[in-house]
Specification:
Largest sheet: 5 strands, parallel
Helix content: 40-55%
Structural class: alpha/beta
Strand content: 15-25%
Strand order of the largest sheet: 2-5-1-6-7
Number of strands: 7
Radius of gyration: 17 Å
Low-confidence stretches: none
Order of helices and strands: EHEHEEHEEHHHEH
Mean pLDDT: 92
Number of helices: 7
Distance between the termini: 37 Å
């Protein structure tokens, strides 16, 4: 008889939140505000990749690193085990489902994304690729395929008011999670 190893997370008193979305949807700003409002520790995966060399080199054409998913997952495993983390990354399918209690997928109008990425100095091919990803709902579909539907929350992120409302929704989730998971 084959036995399959099933890895489970220990019970957490504080949730892990993943904030994901196409570049330019407001992930970094929103995740920083969520971390502050809810008392979570913030992890920006892109920074972690650079700081700890969790990549396989640099892609000059798209001005980005070739992500090594195995290295990223190995690096983050212990970090997320205890809960209380707010993770910011533009994709989500590589992360184990057990890590997250809520997956927030930020969406924005393509004109907003275009303006935000232009201000960052993104190359035109990278801007275009990201706009196409948002139009095709790539990140949303990845989240819906990778996680249980009840933990995926799609939120509009076009205005400051929407971002503030999103932070309030997630902070309320964190508060309720802590209330119902206190040991």
């Amino acid at each position: 008889m084959d036995s399959e190893l099933i890895i489970t997370s220990p019970p957490r008193n504080s949730p892990n939140i993943l904030v994901t979305g196409t570049p330019g949807t407001g992930k970094t700003t929103t995740s920083e505000l969520i971390a502050l409002a809810a008392g979570l520790e913030k992890v920006t995966v892109g920074e972690l990749v650079k700081e700890r060399s969790l990549h396989d080199g640099y892609n000059e054409e798209f001005d980005t690193y070739w992500l090594n998913e195995d290295k990223v997952v190995d690096e983050m495993e212990d970090m997320l085990a205890g809960g209380g983390m707010c993770v910011d990354f533009h994709t989500c399918g590589m992360f184990p489902e057990r890590w997250f209690d809520l997956v927030v997928v930020l969406r924005a109008d393509t004109d907003k994304i275009y303006d935000r990425l232009e201000k960052r100095g993104y190359k035109q091919n990278k801007v275009q690729e990201n706009i196409e990803c948002e139009i095709m709902q790539v990140v949303l579909e990845e989240a819906q395929e990778s996680y249980q539907p009840e933990i995926v929350m799609e939120l509009a992120s076009n205005t400051v008011e929407q971002m503030e409302a999103n932070v309030e929704k997630v902070a309320a989730f964190v508060e309720e999670f802590r209330r119902t998971h206190t040991q």
